[in-house]
Structure formats: C-alpha cells, structure tokens
UniProtKB/TrEMBL annotation, chain A:
Domain Carrier: 5-86
Listed Pfam families: PP-binding (PF00550)
Superkingdom of this protein's organism: Bacteria
Lineage, top ranks: Bacteria, Pseudomonadati, Pseudomonadota, Alphaproteobacteria, Acetobacterales
Name recorded for this polypeptide: Acyl carrier protein
InterPro entries in the record: ACP-like_sf, PP-bd_ACP
Automatic annotation (TrEMBL), chain B:
Coarse class of the protein's main subcellular location: membrane
Pfam family, one: Lip_A_acyltrans
Membrane-spanning segments: 25-43
GO aspect biological process, one term: glycolipid biosynthetic process
Protein localization: Cell inner membrane
GO CC annotation terms, alphabetical: plasma membrane
Recorded GO MF terms: acyltransferase activity
Name listed for the protein in its UniProt record: Lipid A biosynthesis acyltransferase
Coiled-coil zones: none
Native source organism of the sequence: Teichococcus oryzae
Superkingdom per UniProt: Bacteria
Length: 88, 304
C-alpha cells in the first residue's frame, strides 16, 4: 500500500469514527465530494472532523483558509492536506 | 420550505415599504400604517393564520379569537417597523431594558466564550442592538439563508451593524467559524426553535421531537451538538416587544456545559433540546404575542 493510500484509509477511519457513521471506512469513495452530494456531510460534521484532525495530527483547520473548498472537496484532497501539514 | 421563502419575501417587501414611508413621512405615519399592513397579512395568509391559531390556543390555554390573531400579527409588524431603525443603528426613541447582563458579563469575563440560544420570539434586532451598544467581545449570529439574505440586503443599504457578523448556515465552514469565535472568547448566537430546512448526512434531518406546550414538536439538534462538542457555556437570549419602541431583552443561564457522552450521545442531545423547549414554552406562555413561528409547528395541519 502506498503512503497516499495509507493516509487516505487512515483519514477515512477517522471520519467514520468521529461522526459515528454507519458507512465503513473502505466504502468512502476517495474522489466523491464530502459535503452536499457524495457523503452528504454538513457543517456540524465539518466541525467534528476539524476537531478530530487537530487531536490526531496536531494542527488546526481554519475557516479563513482560502483553500477550504479544495481541501474539503474529497477524502483524497483532505488526506493530502493532512499529510502536508501534520505535526505528528 | 416554500412557506418560509414566501414569508421572508413578503417581509422584505413590507420592510422596504416601511423604510420608504419612514423617510418620507416619519415614524408616526409608519405606525398608523401598521394597522392596514397587519390586516393585510392577516387576511392574505390563511395557512399562517391557522398555524398561529393552533399555537395561541395552546399558549393561552383557551380558544384564540380574531382579536388574539390580530395582536400577534400586529406585534410582528411592529417589530418589522422597528427593524428599519435598529438595523440602521438608530436607537433614539427606543427603550430597550436588559435583564441578566451580569450573568452574561460573568461568562464573558471567564474567557471561554458563550453560546446564546435564541428563538423566533420577539426581535433579534433588539438583541443585536444590545450587542452593538458595547459588548466587549465579538458576536456572531448563525442564521438560515433567508434571514441572512435579508440582513445582507439591508446592510447594503444602511450602515451595517458594527459588532455582529452573520454566518449563513448551510456552508460547510459555518460551525468552524463559530468555534473560532468562541476560541477568541466571543459570543455565538443561534436560533434553536426551528428545524433545519436542509437534510443532514445521508438524508436524515438533524431534528429531535420533544414536548412543547403539551405535544411533541421537531426541534433542531444542531445548536446542542455545537454546544456539546465545543464545551462552551450556554445561555438563553431573547428580546420581546412590550410596546411601541419598547423591548425587554433577557439573558438567562441555561447550562454551564452540555456533555455529550459518547455512549448516550443521542439521549444527551434530546435532553438538552427538551430542556430548551421547556424554557421556551415558559417564554411563549408569558409573551404569546411575540411568537413568530407562523408555520405548522407541530406538523399536524396536513394530517387528515
């Protein structure tokens, strides 16, 4: 398993756990949108994901980040962003 | 939720008309116009009238008549008139009494921020006027699209509120922005009596049915989840209309923190929503003509 795939499945598990989803982590399409269509998350989910990421990876997602649209566009983008900014 | 959109569009039209009348003819003329405007609202919206009658019957504990309906619709129109002034930051001639400021100040001083749970009761412009008049920390208001649009539209024409930022609900980063405001010790206002128009994850609505005036009604879970997840103290906040340009704004302690235990998370959310509904019920009984939910609150009108 490449490291990109490894972090993607790790983040998928984090999302499933943080949001108490019924979906299994491996069922999340890495390219599908997380919000609206696709997984259908809302702003409360976004908050819970941001908190879980800060606990696990030691950095904060910020609402004033211009790249948020892109970061939250898919599991793949979110995982790549985490890989780049993680403190642990 | 087309009723909501219609209502807001109607409100915006009335708001513009009043804005025009006030600038040309002054407050008193606008006040006299409230009577025909109220009559028009009352006669032209049978569905809202029916919903209001159901609410008033329960809040008053007796059958509601035309006089009660007129009073409710009139109060609503009066807050719309005042809105023209309050959104513009013009407080001359207004008397806004505030209760519970010490309790709010204590929470502000603690530096952990505070969540203010509101309702569609009275005027949130009166609340906002209090914030603008010297709140030492920043204030954000989470609002559904329609309200956010009206406020934005109005701010474009008038000098904007100096202190309060509106965050439209429905954007993915809305709650994150609320969290950051609390982190900075600010206040986050959110209306907790109207179920969200948008379905949440996997089509499920984030609503919970809890008793309100003797019957279960749908209340949003979101505000209580936000409070639980962030661990901030929670107060109730509302401003009721008590007479021409007279308001009473109240801040009441609600919870030091809402604990969402992992294993009984859903129960904890339902308990918080039920506690909120019970408190709002008391306010609705004390100020029944300030209740501005003109929709089928108990989802009973279409049942045959």
């Amino acid at each position: 398993m490449s490291s990109a795939l490894a972090i993607e499945s790790e983040v998928a598990s984090l999302i499933v756990e943080a949001l108490h989803l019924e979906t299994r982590a491996e069922e999340i399409d890495p390219d599908a949108p997380l919000f609206g269509e696709g997984l259908g998350l809302d702003s409360i989910d976004a908050l819970e994901i941001a908190l879980a990421i800060s606990r696990r990876y030691g950095f904060q997602l910020r609402s004033d980040d211009e790249r948020n649209g892109q970061i939250f566009a898919s599991l793949r983008n979110l995982a790549a962003h985490i890989e780049k900014h993680r403190q642990r | 939720m087309s009723w909501q959109r219609q209502r807001e569009r109607g409100s915006l039209g009335a708001l513009r008309l009043m804005g025009w009348v006030i600038t040309r003819l002054g407050y008193r003329a606008a006040w006299l116009l409230l009577y025909p405007i109220t009559g028009y609202f009352l006669l032209s919206s049978p569905r809202q009238r029916r919903a209001a009658r159901l609410f008033l019957g329960r809040a008053l504990g007796r059958e509601a008549g035309w006089r009660d309906l007129f009073r409710l619709f009139f109060t609503f129109s009066a807050t719309l008139l005042d809105r023209v002034f309050l959104l513009d930051g013009q407080r001359r001639g207004f008397r806004i009494e505030v209760q519970g400021m010490e309790a709010l100040d204590a929470r502000i001083a603690a530096g952990r921020g505070c969540i203010l749970l509101g309702a569609h009761i009275g005027s949130f412009d009166a609340l906002r006027a209090v914030a603008d008049a010297g709140c030492p920390v920043e204030v954000v208001a989470l609002m559904h699209g329609d309200h956010a649009a009206i406020s934005r539209d109005f701010f474009a024409q008038h000098a904007a509120s100096r202190h309060t930022t509106v965050i439209p609900l429905g954007q993915p980063d809305a709650m994150l922005r609320a969290k950051e405001c609390l982190d900075r010790g600010g206040l986050v206002g959110i209306l907790a009596d109207r179920a969200p128009a948008m379905p949440g994850r996997t089509g499920g609505m984030r609503v919970v049915h809890v008793p309100f005036l003797g019957r279960p009604a749908a209340f949003p879970e979101g505000p209580h989840i936000l409070a639980g997840v962030l661990g901030a103290p929670v107060m109730l906040a509302y401003g009721v209309w008590t007479g021409p340009r007279r308001y009473q704004v109240r801040f009441e302690p609600f919870a030091e923190r809402i604990v969402l235990d992992r294993r009984r998370r859903q129960e904890a959310i339902a308990e918080a929503a039920a506690a909120y509904a019970l408190r709002i019920e008391a306010v609705a009984r004390a100020y029944p003509y300030n209740w501005f939910n003109f929709h089928d609150f108990w989802e009973e009108m279409d049942a045959s």
